Amino acid sequence: MTALRPRAEALAQPLPPLLARARHLAAGIVLGEHGRRRPGLGDAFWQFRPAQPGDPARAIDWRRSARSDQHFVQEKEWQAAQAVVFWVDRAAAMRFASDKGGETKAERAALIAMATAILLVNAGERVGLTEAEAPPMRGPLQLERIATALAEPATPDYGAPEVATLPRHSRAVFLSDFLGPLAPVEAALTTAADRGVSGALLQVLDPAEEGFPFGGRTVFHSVGGSVEYETRQAGDLKARYLERLAERKARLGELARRTGWQYHLHHTGHPPASALLWLYRALEGRI
After folding, report:
1. What's 57's DSSP letter?
2. Which residues pair with 220 in a beta bridge?
3. Rounded CA separation 101/125 (Å)
4. Helical pair 105-122 and 140-150, crossing angle rounded to 10 deg
5. Helix crossing, 272-283 with 15-27: angle to 10°?
6. What is the pLDDT of residues 194-220, one digit of tens each?
7. Which end of the chain, N or C, is more open, meaning fewer C-beta atoms within 10 Å of its C-beta?
8. Whole-angstrom Cα distance, residue 120 to residue 123?
9. pTM: predicted TM-score of the whole model, two decimal places
10. Torsional class of 267: left (φ above 0), alpha (ψ -120 to 50), beta (otherwise)
11. 175 alpha carbon, distance to own chain's centre
């Protein structure tokens, strides 16, 4: 028991700050009444649509139809709980921050994912992580499980989404810098689309990765220490670097469009609230 307590306290130490920051961030987002924004079983009115062949007579809204030359059907908003599964890249490359002591990409990605999970749970949804064997669940205990898992770093230089546990016809969110090999990302998106999974890609970059503010003699090395490159004229690399970065972002956008997902770029130098609001709306199909 004596040896177990320090380990338990060390494990729990990063949990309250992440949850507290995520709850604070989520509380500042005004969403209005939650809805799934699609027709289906439910009690809330969503929209009228013109009656189609095969619609039963009892489905026609006669009051609305009386104001027009055609018949209309009243659709309800689908309110069944959905599963939303997150992949949050915690590989070594995500631990980069250009400002010493500043927020890393991994910390920002975890914060946005955690705040999104809080909003979803508050709306009655089930949430989980792609690498977890347990199915997505509701409730504060599930949020604590997710926060605990997000506090554990991964060892590779670059991460890759895991989709083996994605439930069919669920929704998913991938948060990463997406600066590593894109083949695993493309394979994951294709597999997800084949399972009827829709979702969003949120690319998280540090401002230095976007602007390349380097010149003269510079030594570049990966966060994990496996790659090192030295140049005497770093400024000469800027144009080629920015070109390749633009190509990478365009390819991510194309991958998202091809699989029916959404893509968004977020910088750690910007407030996280805008990315959180975009992500939540993307999951609801409002973008």
Report:
1. G
2. 229
3. 35
4. 170
5. 70
6. 999 999 999 999 998 887 666 655 555
7. N
8. 5
9. 0.76
10. beta
11. 5
